[in-house]
Amino acid sequence: ISEDKVMGVAGALVKTGLAAKGYRYVNMDDGWWLKRRMPDGRMLIRSDSFPSAAAAGGKGETSFKPMTDRLHAMGLKAGIYSDLGRNTCSEAYPAPDGWLPQGSVAEREVGLYGHVDQDIKLYMQDWGFDYLKVDACGIRAYGKDSGPVTSGKYRRFDPLIDGWSINRTDIAGVRRLYRDVGDALQRTKPDGDYVFSICVWGAANVRAWGKDVGNVSRTSDDLGPLWTRMLENFDSAAGRPLYAHPGSWNDPDMLYIGAGDFDAHHLTEAKSHFALWAMLSAPLILGNDVRTMPKVLLDIVGNADIIAVDQDPAGNQAVLAYDADDVQILVKTLANGKKAVALFNRGIAPMDVDLTAEQLKFSDAGEIVLTDLWSKRTTRFKKQTKFALAPRETMIFVAAGTRRLENGLYLSEMPGRVNPAVDGVTVPEPDPSLFRMQTWGGTQGNGAHPQYAGWGGATADRTPFGQTLDVAGRTFASGLGVLANSRIEVRNDGAATFTAEVGVDDSTSDKSHPTTFAVYGDGRLLAKSAPKTWSDKPETLVAKVKGVKIIELVATNGAPADALPTVIVWGNAALMN
């Protein structure tokens, strides 16, 4: 990276009109640093690549302030990169062209560890950056037997992340270090005008705590310009709609439009990639060189209607309304009451895909109008309609219709207002439902195994382990599935009544320990069930919540810590006006 590249991309964002459509952060990744100066520990910039940094800093000093000032003057914002440990990803996995920090062992320690407050103040206050990405190679790749350490170039850092072994990862330690960075950001920029990007690749059970610490949380390993890699990254976020909300988003990594399987010769794949990220409410980060982007790809990433779906102010990540290995249907409730819907053909053969009013949570009786966000054509239907999808194609629409709940919304329609504050998971599990691609280094070993923590958490319209919601033989098409000993927070927005039908799911492993369901409003008990065990019929809970700001859904049982998990259901959970 260099100043010429950064400013050239910034100019291209403005010239192409992408900046006016919302692409306003210009983010630098690894490689900008020269060294950490000793003995004061101040970071020095590679001034041969960023000449304005040397001109502004004075003798022996460097500063990014001239560059960030220029970006701000263009109406843009500036992003910078660091690492949670002493050293960075580029030092652990160096590229052939070098670009590594220089100097002594101490001078090459350019990560945040041991310098959090000093560096955060420098980057966000003195240099004027608006976005900070914090990687985690420094707490993973520098163990005593690692190449970087045995070479003598870097100090040992006993890993907090042990490969992708969840049980051998210090989840609390990783969370604590990221929280320290978040606290430093709040002290430095108390107005909250920044983005804190957590990049721990779905490890360390980040699903459960990333939403409470940062603004953007990576859910998977790095994306690559491969269709199969896109599937894996998409899957890592698609099942987590309840773990995203305004102010904190799931991040399946940048868009790879413009390269490999998503270049100008693969427009179907490029359009799918973009539409799916929009349905996930994921950050839209362009990973290609905008300066040379052909118009046919600019038209994809500049589609204002699809950008609006991604940026919809309701902040609801799409929920999987239909889920299979070859076809998925995603539905997202928009702030204006309409629905965005995507029909995704994951496979290599043409597919006929049915879309139903039930999947949209619309009434069967009313007319539904679909507007295709690629072609702008409209389709009208009642009850259900059919589409023919080409291999790897994603159709994306905005749907208008009559809501199934005339005077309210199911909680699974508004995941952006639902926070699994405690999801009942005591032993994080790798998620077996993710697509698994050929590993990065080839096909040595015995295969690609599930890596990312995330199985067993709170889920919309299905159980934590992917089953339908069933209580005593009764199926609920809408609801929340979660484990017992959980607490779900719901942000109320003027609704008068909360309703749900509660019980223990038929799929639960623990059939003996009774679970009690309770509803609280701003800390006050509003409704409570009788203790429910497996095979008990669902019980209806109704709570008056007018004027309540935060509704809490609490499910507790007396099972010992080593008991099998109890899967419970908040069936048809809804807020009514």
Key traits:
single chain, 577 residues, alpha+beta, 6-stranded parallel β-sheet, 6-stranded antiparallel β-sheet, 13 helices, 20% helix, globular
Can you offer a commentary on this structure?
- The chain has 577 residues and is α+β, with helices and mostly antiparallel strands.
- 20% of the residues lie in helices and 27% in strands.
- It contains 13 helices and 31 strands.
- A 6-stranded parallel sheet has the order 1-4-5-6-7-8.
- Strand 7, helix 9 and strand 8 form a beta-alpha-beta unit.
- It is globular and about 75 Å long.
- The model has no long low-confidence stretch (mean pLDDT 95).
Describe the largest sheet: 6 strands, parallel
- The first-to-last residue Cα distance is 53 Å
**What's the gyration radius in Å?**
25 Å
Mean residue pLDDT: 95
Shape: globular
Low-confidence stretches: none
Structural class: alpha+beta
- Percent helix range: 10-25%
- Describe the strand arrangement of the main beta sheet, using strand numbers: 1-4-5-6-7-8
User: Please, how many helices?
Assistant: 13
Strand tally is 31
Q: What proportion of the residues form beta strands (DSSP E)?
A: 25-35%
